[in-house]
Write a structure and sequence with these properties.
The chain is an alpha+beta fold. It contains 5 helices and 5 strands. Strand 3 and strand 4 form a beta hairpin.
Length: 158
């Protein structure tokens, strides 16, 4: 099945089995390896990407669902070789440890801040609740989201 969609702000077309998972299409067909597979059941969030601005677990999205949609991966956040505001905040707040869950956390943060540019701590925790990190202090994650939110409010959403 030929599927047309936007991937990281670029129109793409792919001939793919509609039952293939988005995570496999991203990693195998487009060499976008930021989204990681861990649970394969939509529970851990390591594979989170944005689809039409919403955080989704790419292990649970089938390729047949992509027609006409827009998908943004962590790789798509960089512009001109520069990290996005959310990525920078995660680095500055030391919210990156082993890195396995980082891309999913960053994409969930991006989705949260697109909807709510000034989230409370409770809203941040709820926004990240679909993601599991085994080696970070969640206080650092919350601090990173707060810093990114502050910077985005001051400079506009990137």
């Amino acid at each position: 099945m030929v599927i047309n969609f936007v991937l990281n702000n670029r129109k793409v077309q792919i001939d793919v089995c509609p039952a293939r998972r988005l995570i496999d299409v991203l990693r195998e067909d487009f060499s976008l390896t930021g989204a990681k597979e861990s649970c394969g059941e939509g529970e851990c969030g390591a594979c989170t990407v944005l689809m039409d601005g919403e955080a989704v677990h790419s292990c649970m999205v089938m390729a047949g669902q992509l027609e006409g949609r827009s998908v943004l991966t962590v790789e798509g956040l960089m512009e001109n070789g520069e990290f996005d505001t959310v990525q920078k905040a995660f680095m500055e707040c030391q919210a990156i440890h082993c890195g396995f869950c980082t891309a999913g956390m960053i994409m969930s943060t991006k989705a949260l801040l697109l909807k709510n540019p000034d989230p409370s701590e409770e809203e941040i925790r709820i926004g990240l609740s679909g993601n599991i990190c085994r080696c970070s202090d969640y206080r650092q994650l919350v601090a990173a989201v707060k810093l990114a939110a502050k910077r985005l409010r001051e400079g506009g959403l990137a």
